[in-house]
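Notebook entry, cofactor series.
This is the third protein in the set we're modelling with a bound small molecule. For this one the ligand is PBG. I'm keeping the input format identical across the series so the outputs can be compared line by line later. Sequence and SMILES below, as received.
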Amino acid sequence: MNKTLRIGTRGSALAMSQSSTVADALERAGYATELVRVATSGDRSMAPITEIGVGVFTSALREALANGEVDVAVHSYKDLPTAPDPRLSLAAVPSREDPRDALVARDGLTLGELPPGSAVGTGSPRRASQLEALGSGLVVRGIRGNVDTRMRKVTDGELDAVVLARAGLARVGRLEVITESLDPLQMLPAPAQGALAVECRVDDVDTEHLLQSVMDDPASRDAVAAERAMLAALEAGCSAPVGALAGVTEDPDEDGRVARRLSMRGVVATEDNALLHASVTGETTAAEQLGRDVAAQLLDARAALLSGPGQ
Ligand SMILES: NCc1[nH]cc(CCC(=O)O)c1CC(=O)O
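Returned structure with ligand:
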């Protein structure tokens, strides 16, 4: 392929960093690239994410790709709607960044050190319900905006802390502001947090093969596939906040063959904000089924809870 690959990207610092990573990998492999900025409704609106809905950051980029304005689209995987777009192919899931959520707190404090009554900013119902479930008296405040806007609320003293994706801070070179990377035992990240989705048109097989061979990471792809399958199954069954994290380990068996195993945990909050957890382990070849198994366990636990004792 000797044409220049046009890579569609949002204009935010996070998006530019993500698309540059993809461009750099392609350039290193000997291909010419060009970044093309596409504005999205999510960038133009300051309304809470819970009101403007999923897909606000990704739909304009997907349209530009489907229309042929660009050849490649780079998304934060967790921002993509779970329904596949039949016009597009998920050509690559590059090696995932650290998926944990991160606390940025005043005076270097950790989550456990924040006194009762501390104001913690997040616009995410998933983060809010897991913070409240700690039982340490934290007061969750809704916030939005880019990384700098959110962190300024801590520097200005308006909030005691904010919770952000560690991957977002890593990508904009701000890891030093983190006062604690949150243990997934307490705070499960959003499904696919820290992963990128690199898409091309479904009929553009040359670009599809190129992206796959240059930057697909099967372990990241499988982990994220399990988490997203869990999310999709839960979306069908309830509208509650969802967290999930899968990991892939490679164990040589007795014959020296490498078995790739996937373990994952999931969490969902009930209407009255109790957390339900479930977990599963199995072969990576069944990644999506494993995700659906966790979702089924969570829906069963929720049904049992709602039907009450003795029924
Ligand atoms: N919801 C917005 C969003 N989409 C992707 C990231 C960070 C990078 C990632 O998780 O891949 C963020 C910011 C955040 O949640 O703090």
